[in-house]
Amino acid sequence: MSNLKILVGCKRVIDFAVKIRVNTAKKAVETANIKHSLNPFDEIAVEEALRLREKLGDKVVKEIVALTCGPPKAQEQLRTALAMGADKAIHVEVGKDDNDVANILQPLAVAKLFKAIVEKEQANLVILGKQSIDDDASQTGQMLAGLLNWPQATFASKVEINNDKITVTREVDGGLETISSTLPAVVTTDLRLNEPRFATLPNIMKAKKKPLVKFTPDQLSVDITPRLETISVVEPPARQGGTKVESVDELISKLKEAGAL
In what residue span(s) does the Electron transfer flavoprotein alpha/beta-subunit N-terminal domain sit (predicted)? Predict the structure, then answer.
């Protein structure tokens, strides 16, 4: 297939190295003054789009578009994708800060926003991370495929494109499964698909000059009203220390006392 336009999801999440804590309202995790970064699975998605262009050539992959839905600061993650090599970025601005987004944006709303952008940009391949590391929902890619009525290949560990056919090796509980379909399609990436490249300083500087287009949900005629309400968020109970026993008999006695035997 020629004139392949790839749309890649780029979600802003709390950095994986940050130890999260519940906010004072007990409704979500604390996001204020916390380091954020590009979702690791989405970073893999950006890398795969770039590798497909390097393999197929510029005449086949015409454009790679990075897309995010989030607060104004989400532009930071789009600039990361642009510095890696994406050609253009689209920002659907939602909420004033990260806390707003956590309360507003749910997978179905994101899928609807992505659908609107796919149709506007006339993209014919969407690559998303299989899940985000904040809510771990793993739903947006599947919902988007359903809304677009496109074939989907989730948890991809290998992606190949030949003309208008895409072949994906995906990870399943029993091992590996290989599926193929015609384009357009939606693909979600797994950890073992690739290792993302680092953005070099010259590319970071070039990224500042690449186009970044903004939209709002209203401009896209998409209703993002939350359908689910978070009642309460609590930290898991602290783990209790273990005890040492001197013999097997004592171990059996302890297990009986705990009701395990």
Answer: 26-224
- What domain range includes position 209? 4-257
In this prediction the pTM is 0.85
Alpha-carbon distances, residue 52 vs 47, 116, 124, 206 (angstroms): 9, 24, 14, 21
pLDDT at 221 over 70: yes
Burial of 54 (0-12, 13-18, 19+ CB in 10 A): exposed
Distance CA(175)–CA(188), nearest Å, equals 17
Give the total number of structural domains in the chain: 1
The one-character DSSP state at 72 is G
CATH of the domain at 215: 3.40.50.620
- Note the pLDDT tens digit of each residue in 115-150: 999 999 999 999 999 999 888 888 999 999 999 999
AA letter at 191? L
Give the 3-state secondary structure of residue 6. strand
* Tens digits of residue pLDDT in 160-174: 999 889 999 998 888
